[in-house]
Design a protein that fits this description.
Mean pLDDT: 83
Order of helices and strands: HHHHHHHHHHHHHHHHHHHHHH
Helix content: over 70%
Strand content: under 5%
Structural class: mainly alpha
Radius of gyration: 23 Å
Distance between the termini: 65 Å
Low-confidence stretches: none
Largest sheet: none
Number of helices: 22
Shape: globular
Number of strands: 0
Length: about 525
């Protein structure tokens, strides 16, 4: 039994200081206006790619993915393969569209496509509410685990995490966030890879013993976990993979924290590289986490006395990897891996702060303002919003530390995740149809949202709803949004005598035509 030593503490402190100074270094040039929101055009694609990866991989994933395969099977690993669905759709349809329109935010697209400031504001509000709640939870959950391992008060860990992210988000804008995300994502990748190699070396039989257990003891897929169900809305590998792919695709096209990375360039080659790079990193790290979980299952079954020496709390599957880091890894490496957990938190937090500030200024304040806001003023407002939202998130996280978070966390993420999925349906309606109107988009959003909430909570006790997998919600919401949106739009066009179609360049069809024309000229 080793635990968290003063050497690990020193490494963690040095790491946090390094992240802070790196953020300040990349923010030494004063960023104003679009540079604050979109960077200054000097950020390499591979930096942005790692930043997207670090943004999507929250500390919750860091702790729970290994726990999934330790306490269960690899069934949910197929959700990570959803990238194979999301990335081709994003590259084929949405990246050319966003590149052609040269948008500043995800929700600017809704205004352009539907000629509706209201839809732009609606999308921004839903995103901001979701992000504030998510940032608070992301500060709390890893701090809770680290507090147990390090004996540092949880409030101190929350404040340190929040303050560091606020400082470099406030001073440097998106460029500072992207470079610090790159550092933190790299630390995470290196640390997890080392942990996997070290774990396999500690297991009698090594990787062979792990794979034997996976495939011979039902630890890859359980007998009741189906590859495909004829009623395809029920739980199966297929719906997990496909549904997760649509969820990820919705994040790629409608979540400002991801779309903001796509606004750093209009070069399709760069955009394609950063998207593919993120996909490779995401699938690699998810596979590494699941291998770690299976490895921990074998490791602790070979040495059951190690679990007996720990408290009962250790046996909780979502904490097993953190305790392995603290008690089994060499001194010093423990500090690096705990820094990696902190890295996953800070990268998500800093991205959230910057994207919320960007969306507030450009999607809400600039739209409702009666006169144009100067660039310098926009930047200053964004900095104040970053500061205010950061402080609010710290306060909420500290409140959560004194309450029962589990049920609130599950409810919040379930509900808001559904809403963001519905928002993705609105983007699909706009991008893939030429005749959808703003009225059709509003009604589609409302109908899809209400339907998914009814399916989720099933207040009318419909038996079929109880069998629908939550991974099918995105498929349902996108399908309903498109069908309802087209029907209502047809009625709206008929009643109002509307003959105009979507503005030029605002659908995947006209964006692809434009791209072909530009390629022919080149």
């Amino acid at each position: 039994m080793k635990g968290f030593t003063w050497i690990d503490m020193a490494i963690l402190i040095v790491y946090l200081a390094a992240v802070l100074f790196a953020g300040l270094y990349f923010s030494k040039k004063e960023m104003k206006g679009k540079e604050f929101f979109r960077g200054d055009g000097t950020i390499p694609w591979w930096v942005t790619s790692v930043s997207i990866f670090a943004t999507l991989l929250s500390p919750i994933s860091f702790l729970s993915l290994a726990g999934n395969s330790y306490g269960g099977t690899w069934f949910l690993w197929f959700a990570q393969l959803g990238m194979l669905v999301a990335i081709p759709i994003t590259i084929r349809f949405f990246l050319p569209l966003y590149s052609h329109l040269d948008i500043d935010t995800a929700y600017e697209y809704l205004q352009i496509r539907f000629n509706s400031k209201g839809l732009r504001i609606l999308g921004a509000v839903m995103f901001i509410v979701y992000q504030i709640g998510r940032m608070s939870i992301i500060m709390y959950l890893p701090s809770m685990v680290l507090a147990k391992l390090t004996n540092i008060p949880i409030s101190v860990l929350i404040i340190v995490m929040g303050v560091i992210a606020i400082i470099y988000s406030y001073t440097g804008g998106l460029k500072s966030v992207l470079w610090t995300d790159f550092i933190q994502g790299s630390v995470l990748l290196i640390g997890v890879t080392f942990a996997l190699i070290f774990l396999f070396a500690k297991i009698n039989g090594g990787a062979g013993a792990v794979f034997d257990t996976m495939f011979n003891e039902g630890k890859f897929l359980a007998p009741d976990e189906k590859w495909f169900d004829p009623v395809f809305l029920r739980s199966s590998v297929f719906i997990v993979l496909f549904g997760a792919g649509l969820n990820t695709c919705s994040s790629y096209v409608s979540s400002q924290d991801i779309v903001q990375r796509f606004t750093t360039t209009t070069d399709m080659k760069q955009l394609t590289k950063m998207t593919l790079g993120n996909g490779v990193l995401s699938i690699f790290i998810a596979t590494a986490f699941y291998l770690i979980g299976s490895g921990l299952y074998v490791y602790y079954n070979q040495q059951p006395q190690l679990l007996a020496e720990m408290s009962n709390e250790v046996i909780k599957q979502d904490q097993i990897f953190a305790y392995f880091i603290a008690y089994a890894l060499p001194v010093g490496v423990t500090g690096i891996l705990l820094a990696a957990i902190y890295a996953a938190s800070q990268s998500t937090l800093s991205t959230g702060l910057n994207s919320v500030a960007t969306s507030w200024v450009l999607d809400i304040q600039a739209i409702v303002s009666k006169k144009e806001i100067p660039m310098k003023r926009q930047t200053k407002i964004a900095q104040y919003v970053s500061l205010g939202v950061g402080i609010a998130s710290i306060v909420v996280a500290m409140i959560l530390a004194e309450s029962d978070i589990k049920s609130a966390y599950e409810w919040f993420n379930a509900f808001m995740g559904l809403v963001l999925g519905v928002l993705g349906g609105t983007f699909a309606l706009g991008a893939f149809t030429k005749k959808a109107t703003n009225v059709g988009a509003y009604v589609a959003f409302a109908v899809a949202a209400v339907l998914i909430v009814i399916i989720k909570y099933n207040p009318f006790k419909v038996a079929f709803f109880a069998d629908i997998s939550s991974w099918a919600y995105s498929l349902i919401s996108i399908s309903v949004s498109v069908v309802v949106g087209l029907i209502v739009s047809a009625i709206h066009r008929k009643v109002k005598g509307i003959t105009e179609e979507a503005p030029e360049g605002s659908t995947v069809y006209t964006a692809r035509i434009k791209k072909t024309e530009e390629a022919d000229k080149a």
